[in-house]
Design goal:
Chain lengths: 321, 361
Amino acid sequence: MALLNSDKNDKRTQEAERVAADAATAQTGERVEAEKTGKKRASSYWAVSWGIFKKNRLGMACLVVVCILVFVALFAPLLAPYDPDFQTLTARLQAPNSTYLLGTDEYGRDILSRTIYGCRISLSVGVVSQIIALVIGFFVGVCAGYFGGKVDAVLSFIIQVFSSFPFLLFAIVVMYVMGPGLVNLYVALGLLMWTSTARLVRGDVMRLKGSEYIQSCILSGGSSWRIIMKHLLPNCVSTLIVVSTLGIPNAILSEASLSFLGLGVQPPTASWGQMISASQPYIQSNTYYSVIPGIAIIITVMAFNLLGDALRDALDPKMRA
Amino acid sequence: MGKNKDMNDVVLEAQHLTKHYPIKKGLFGKASNYVHALEDVSFQVHRGETFSIVGESGCGKSTTGKCILRLTEPTSGTVTLDGQDFTALQGEALTEARKKMKLIFQDPYSSLNPRMTVADIIAEPIDIAGTYKTRAERDARVEEIMQAVGLDLAFKYRYPHEFSGGQRQRIGIARAIVLQPELVVCDEPVSALDVSVQAKVINLLEELQDRYGLSYVFISHDLSVVKHISDTVMVMYLGREMELADKDSLFAEPLHPYTQALLDVIPRITHERIQDKKILQGDVPSPTNPPSGCVFHTRCTKCMKVCTQKAPELHEVRPGHFCACHLFDESLSEAERQLSLDPTLVAQEKAQETGAEVLQD
């Protein structure tokens, strides 16, 4: 055995020498290689997906619309011609004119400014509630799919219970219990919308769980946490992106419905749903008052929905040739 | 073939390994029946040797590999690694012992996480074990191993989908040996590759064995690969050991009728006519309901009366050459030795023979 070991050591030193020699030659070629590597990295999963996405004209158009919406929401104070809450009682319920491009409401507030500010509310509700839903949904889904057995049975039951509530009715109850307000709206919608994420993640994880790279990680003594964060999460990202992009319009619609019912954003804060609600008595005399926030909702929801579809086509490897 | 082979130093010993998978039925998941995937399998792997397990698909080769590593828990039996009872280990001790044993997977496509770079994949075992304190040491080790398996260092930050099957398998091999294990279970490591790439990967495995003194448990159905790489070969059928011998005596003089049939169908360039070869008739019986007596008797051309009643035990027929077959049991009576062939098997055999004669005329 000793003889064997010394033999092995000899081989090691030889090997070390060879490695050193290789390294020396490698270094000269390294810069050239680095350039190649840079180029090669561009063909990663995300780059390929972006290439597919770029070819989808409708998807690109929706991306542009979404970017414009985000821009409008971020720079609302700069873009709005008037203070959205400033009342000019002498100029109530005006039709669109040169002073008020989209007219005024029953308190003489500028509808254009209110629509621009409403964009902030809608987008923030969509994004924040989806982030809450995503975090809850991912962890419930991962635990159900990864641990399986009884954990899966219990969690799947909870998912079933949550998704079998009538959505709006449950939202109304939650908002009623917690009281109206923007933060409560985020939480209520987040608590309601995680089930679809959880279901999809559970399915993904059950499929990935048997993968050999996860077996290899288990063999190396990797913890469940490591497997979830290093192996499962990166492989679920495309699912998560698609689910949340498709979830955002739902959240925006729910915000509009709840605000319309008076349980969401409270006046005088401008929100599209609440504007439609306020315009109700004037729907025959001043149609444009209700139509404008309605159009804003339609454009936003459609843009996110179609963007979600385009992303799914681009990110799903099965859709690729 | 391992040049560092040491016949007195046993790295791994499996004793009476048995694995039954329950088939669950009904509301409460009561096991109604069992799949007898492994039945009383025992063997030893010596340090530095390549121990091959061969057999048809579904014969329990991969299950043996998984039971050794405890990726599935054996129903009964023990695995001893370096004198330590591996089957009894739990938690930390199991993780520690598993550093000595690694697995190379069959499918180079599903064995690498598509979202990790090559360097991260190879470094995963050392990252988990926390072998190296600094990033530089870790990277140096990754580069060393990449060179050892013949991967260009420029590939470090690339993703698996950019590689061919052979290169991916090299990445898998690098991940398996990065922690310097003593034993590597190779589960059909080349069967998903092109023949030309197979040869390269096999040569790499041999080179690494010599350099690092690795022992291999090499699972394969490809007898020509096994003939090239092995020191010792175990032939399995329906979860049981049929024959166990060193490579030379097994290939020169196969004792078990099943081994003979297997060796007969290796494609060769000879003057022999293909028609002269005996091709095994019938299908592998279901492992849920294995045949009585010797499990091979339903397909065996030398089936005797005793074979349908009593299962043969593995015994040493020649020195170092073990075989589980009644043909070599001298204590049997004349009545027990009477041929007892399945009529359908005889008919098929005849058809094959007459077919061959017609062609010869």
